[in-house]
Amino acid sequence: MPKYILIIGACGQIGTELTLALREKYGSNHVIASDIREGNDELMLSGPFEILDATNYDALEEVIAYYDISEIYLMAAMLSATAEKFPMRAWNLNMNTLFNVLNLAKEKKINKVFWPSSIAVFGPNTPKEDTPQNTIMEPSTVYGISKQSGERWCEYYFNKFNVDVRSIRYPGLISWKTMPGGGTTDYAVEIYHKALAEGSYTCFLGEDTKLPMMFMDDAIRATLQIMEAPETNIKERSAYNLAAMSFTPKELAESITAVMPEFKINYEPDSRQQIANSWPNSIDDSIAQRDWNWKAEFDLSKTTATMLENLKNKV
Ligand code: AKB
């Protein structure tokens, strides 16, 4: 039986590339993109699209029935920096969309769910280096609290109602097709745009702030891989740690100056510094490697080369 997939939040940074990758794999008409606004031309012209507010259970149920959807990727969320400004809106968006999707799965209206978690589930009391899969969490940000709660609910729906929900704790994601919005790790995308447009960048994090990061191609590959893995391989029903590289703004700037020697960076840390300080420096993803053969392919220099090459061609 061919399956029909719904992406919620398809126009965002991950949603755009995930939709394109799933369409490539399953055929355009089998992957329905949805969001509260339209996305870029590449996404909009590549297959079916619905305007959908996934906080509205009835509207979501209607789309699922209409397209005979069996799998949902729930990518809509308010990220860390914006969530600090609008805590209740962040909580409502991040939690209500998750409950709507989990309840549809509990009612057997869909079979499988992907929901993204984040390194933001960790907090200031978490071991900073090689943060293990299972450790102290205690997130101190609005976004982190919503992701930590979401993980607990995913595990609960699996244990109680046998809902096949799978999740990854994404690090900061670097991509060139769609800009991120409202995150603390966004500097690692903005820097490439500014390097090409202006030859310099003012970073909102301090030069030694080390954070876990990943290039988007790796993140998409991991997402497809965890969703394809046999159900019995998925031992973690909260979310899996996932890692590729860790670097500071200074190290990222050095990787750009290696290609563009005239590039300049300066630092003006703002309120996002406090969020970054509460997150790990690096992540141990050995459990994801063990359970579904995860392995990253992009390091910092390959990421910088790919970003600059593609952004140059885009302008
Ligand atoms: C953010 O910075 O808020 C996100 C994340 C790490 O989940 N990119």
TrEMBL record:
<dbReference type="GO" id="GO:0006567">
    <property type="term" value="P:L-threonine catabolic process"/>
</dbReference>
<dbReference type="InterPro" id="IPR051225">
    <property type="entry name" value="NAD(P)_epim/dehydratase"/>
</dbReference>
<dbReference type="Pfam" id="PF01370">
    <property type="entry name" value="Epimerase"/>
</dbReference>
<feature type="domain" description="NAD-dependent epimerase/dehydratase">
    <location>
        <begin position="5"/>
        <end position="242"/>
    </location>
</feature>
<comment type="similarity">
    <text>Belongs to the NAD(P)-dependent epimerase/dehydratase family.</text>
</comment>
<dbReference type="InterPro" id="IPR001509">
    <property type="entry name" value="Epimerase_deHydtase"/>
</dbReference>
<dbReference type="InterPro" id="IPR036291">
    <property type="entry name" value="NAD(P)-bd_dom_sf"/>
</dbReference>
<dbReference type="GO" id="GO:0008743">
    <property type="term" value="F:L-threonine 3-dehydrogenase activity"/>
</dbReference>
<protein>
    <submittedName>
        <fullName>NAD-dependent epimerase</fullName>
    </submittedName>
</protein>
